[in-house]
Amino acid sequence: MSKKILVLGEVRDGSLRNVSFEAVAAAKAAAQGGEVVGVLVGQSVHSLGNDLIQHGADRVVTVEHVQLAQYTSDGYAQALLAVIQDVNPDGIIFGHTALGKDLAPKLAAKLNSGLISDVTAIEEAGGNIIFTRPIYSGKAFEKKMITDGLMFATIRPNNIAPLEKDESKTGDISSLQADIKDLRSIIKEVVQKASTGVDLSEAKVIVAGGRGVKSKEGFEPLKELAKVLGGAVGASRGACDADYCDYSLQIGQTGKVVTPDLYIACGISGAIQHLAGMSNSKVIVAINKDPEANIFNVADYGIVGDLFEVVPMLTEEFRKLLI
Ligand code: FAD
Questions:
Q1: Cα separation, 143 vs 203, whole angstroms
Q2: DSSP characters for 212-241?
Q3: For a FRET experiment, which of 25, 61, 205, 213 has its CA 20 to 30 Å from that of 55?
């Protein structure tokens, strides 16, 4: 049975994050031929509506308000509740991002609805929408469905391929007036950390360093390799705890969960808590001095060697190929 599915487009620095297009593709699968309605919340977001439509949304509803210029869960919840009332959807899909992880459970609880989080695949079986999600730190997968009420889901970035952009596609972009009031928190100022370039959670290539990198300076060859590959730098908790890099780079059970096309682990032993954050990467390359290191058990390609010799060699070879 066809359904009407809402998708929240996530705006960062004036453009839509890639996970928004993946969420549209997920919504298409969940709608089973029904309608996919994009939602944009913020200030001056109307112009981004076409981007959602060209990636597969049938139409877009925007909620613009001065109080929505910065994300607050209160403000966004009020905006989305107004859209839900107006559109009356069967389900809502968010990215499994900091924003989606904050907002989706809040709304689902408010509306007494079910939420399936960190979804990696969506399929239809016997008229039901089945969501696949990893459990036990990625060691197993479970399939779940929501049997009653509004269906909430957050999708893991880099898992569900976005639909190809169709620049000729058009659709209605309407604005909804929402009364945004009584916010319990107001953002006074956003102080951004120096950006490392590519966003780790959406990166297609990640070069990650562990305690084997040995120092802050030891990350330099990894940064160089990431730059040549157009990727991001990540780290194990071992490297973060040793103060070789910032905790924002930590990948794993208590860090970010990533699924790039290529993950290059340098001087990382492969502790279970690290694997929880990266073992679903499409291709894993491990560089480690110890041939018995556990990381080789999940690696597609293993290089036993000193990372300070291997990484610059890889950089040089990729540079020849790619530049
Ligand atoms: P190590 O285990 O010390 O490994 C360093 C590796 O570098 C070794 O295999 C060594 O052979 C290799 N090496 C050394 N020199 C070189 C060289 N020159 N060239 C090549 N290889 C070299 N960890 C995470 O990563 N993410 C998490 O989110 C996380 N959450 C945790 C949550 C909990 C509750 C707990 C208890 C732990 C968590 N940990 C997490 C920590 C985890 O258990 C490991 O301690 C950590 O991942 C180890 O980091 P590492 O592999 O960099 O260091």
A1: 26
A2: GG-SSGGGHHHHHHHHHHT-EEEE-HHHHH
A3: 205
- The three-state secondary structure class of 193 is coil
Residues at CB less than 6 angstroms from ligand 1? 210-212, 236-239, 250, 252-255, 267-269, 271, 273-274, 277, 287-290, 293, 306-308
How does strand 121-125 pair with strand 128-135? Answer: antiparallel
Report the C-alpha gap between 153 and 100 in whole angstroms.
9
Determine the number of helices (DSSP H) and then strands (DSSP E) in the chain. 8, 17
Report which protein residue has its CA nearest ligand 1's atom 17: 306
Q: How far apart are CA 190 and CA 187, in angstroms?
A: 7
Query: What's the pLDDT tens digit per position in 131-163?
Result: 999 998 788 999 999 998 899 999 999 899 999
Of the candidates 203, 185, 208, the one whose C-alpha atom is nearest the C-alpha of residue 284 is 208
What ipTM was predicted for this assembly?
0.99
Cβ atoms of residues 279 and 265 within 8 Å: no
Q: What is the pTM of this model?
A: 0.85
Best residue for ligand 1 mutational test, from 236, 243, 248 (most atoms within 8 Å of Cβ): 236
The C-alpha atoms of residue 208 and residue 4 are separated, in whole angstroms, by 40
Probe target for ligand 1 pocket from 237, 266, 313, with the most ligand atoms within 8 Å of CB? 237
